[in-house]
Amino acid sequence: MAEFTEDSAGEHELISTSLELEQLDTKLFRSKTLWTPARARGVFGGQVISQALVAATRCVEEGLSVHSLHCYFLMSADASVPIIYYVEPIRDGRTYCARSVKAAQNGKWIFMLTCSFQRPERGQPSHQWPMPQHVPVPKSCPYQEDVFKRHSEKPGISDDVRQMWLQYVEDRKRSPIAIKPAGSVTTTDGLVQSMYWMRAKNVPTKFQASFQKCVLAYISDLNFIGNAARSAGLHSGAAPPNKLGMISSLDHTIWYYDNDFDCSEWLLFVTISPRTGMGRGVVHGRVYTQKGKLIAVVTQEGVVRADLGELPKKQSKAKL
User: Fold this and answer.
1) What pTM, to 2 d.p., does this model score?
2) List 194, 221, 231, 264, catalytic entry
3) Local structure of 256: helix, strand or coil
4) For residue 112, is it within any domain?
5) Is 124 labeled as catalytic in the residue annotation?
6) Same domain, 297 and 185
7) What is the CATH number for 257?
8) Most-buried pick from 29, 30, 191, 297 (CB within 10 A)?
9) Co-location of 207 and 163 in the same domain
């Protein structure tokens, strides 16, 4: 049996370590490392998505490349217990094939993914939404941990809020993914469009295309559902009713439109939330290379709850 490690500093040094699986049988895999972000309820969702996609990718023929995935988070995962991934073939066609992956922990299903793979089709017409104009280049943007550090140094904040920011700083320093906020703008529709440069750190060699898509799946869950919270006016350091109480992924979808990108280079994530309400929020995202090629489209719905504090008790009506 391979040694299982929980939330070790080494797990964060290489993205390849975060995605590594032990193969138990032909279509059966087990996680080797799991990570719970600071103040999170369970294992990072992007790691579960990417590990499930690694398992599915290892169960298809060479020459097939994932073009879409759809998944549901059913329960929070415990980083101290390995996750078991079961891959099931759904269909094998000449151009497309499909696989489903179920993830279990402690005898319960915690996650489900369905993904479709495609053989390359060359010479087909294409179009794309353009990359936003006037986006600052990565070199001119600060690292996210530096932004968090400045937040922790603001005068007048509580010790708990200061500690929260410092925990986020440590998470970002140890993460295999570098993030640089590239600003937020309000669209003509009044929506908040947030942009981030992201890339995988410490990549020793260029990964093959199939693994690059698994890395992008990991990255796609970072700084994503938070846009819905911000669009609703919720923030961690605010007071009720504007205090963010909880965010958590419910479902996640990725459509890939390129087979030749490198996650060790800076990629621009453009996110926007069209709706929050009923304790939920939805976010749409687009992923661009620095040259402006749109390589993936992402959508996520998640729990978005405010910390309402103590609600006033309803007064009973006087009896006549």
Assistant:
1) 0.90
2) 221
3) strand
4) yes
5) no
6) yes
7) 3.10.129.10
8) 29
9) no
